[in-house]
Amino acid sequence: MGILKFFVFELKKLLKRKGNIAFIVLLPVAIVLVFSFILRSYMTPDVNFFNHAVILYSPAELRTDNEEFAQFADRIESDMDIEVTSAASEEEGKHAVDQQKAAAWIGFDSQNGYRYYASEYMEQDASKLIRVLFGEMVGKGSAADITETEILNVERTNANEYFVFAETGFVILFLAIIFGLDIFNERENKTLSRIIVSRSSLLSYIGSKMLLALLAGILQVVIVHFISATFLHVSWGADTGKIYIQYALIAMFTAAFGVFAALLVKNKTLFQQVIIVVASLFGFLGGSFAPISTLENMKLVSYCIKISPLYWTNKSLIELHKGIMSSSYYVAIIIWGVLALVFTILSILMTKKEETAR
Length: 358
Description:
The protein is mainly alpha-helical. Helices cover about 65% and strands about 5% of the residues. Helix 2 (about 20-40) packs antiparallel against helix 7 and helix 2 (about 20-40) packs across helix 10 (about 200-230).
């Protein structure tokens, strides 16, 4: 039986199971909307413009030794009721900004001059005004003119934009449950033993599942694209095709991994738990539950996140959305492609072994 016949066979089975269709259609809508709104606080400033705003600086002696900065700090504190306090280090100051615990961090050294740091993903409104005032008080048009400024000169990513892209890949991973459970059903009704008769048919069999996963994954992406553009006002930009390619590879990986996990784990409940744990781990380390900028500022976590394929996908797609084509995109493409190939080969070997044992 060729791959197309297998594909038609798999598609008919999928369409008969209304629960799977509902899962494919409703899950991306639910997760993207929920995460976009619930986790908005990670990337959105307080409603009260200057409520509890804090400016951090280092080194600690900057305020006492630098009259220019001291005048700025005194004016900000007296006129705007903003706290200006020292940070133990540059790293601590930047970390507080990324955690939305401070509006900005200002550094200074005699060789490089001032440096002004605001959040990579969502600069607070308070920081935007402070940045302008600071630039004026130190003799610049704005802090963007200050030496070594670390404020990005690109459009900021808001909560809706970030979590739409970060959650879509996370959602697709759960397709592995559908294709894995299908293996359990085929094993129980002896379909698996009947259709696997040669290496070529086995390749067609697993390949058909990957094609179906590709179709289901693209359907989910189209749904998210429509929902995000219509209700969340998120534009996917001119590189939409490149974004779809990333998600297509994730979908193909989920089929290969789902089949492999189902062959490896003989218990249905344990299999589903394995998929959920793996997907959750990929999601947590990949920035689906918290902004990547936050994770990158946690010492131990900043190393761990790089083992998650979703980290490279989410990082590259956020950059792509801002018009930046980085090496992260190609790293993600290679990782997902290699993983899909590896799990396909492992699935073939395990299935052959299972049939030989019978």
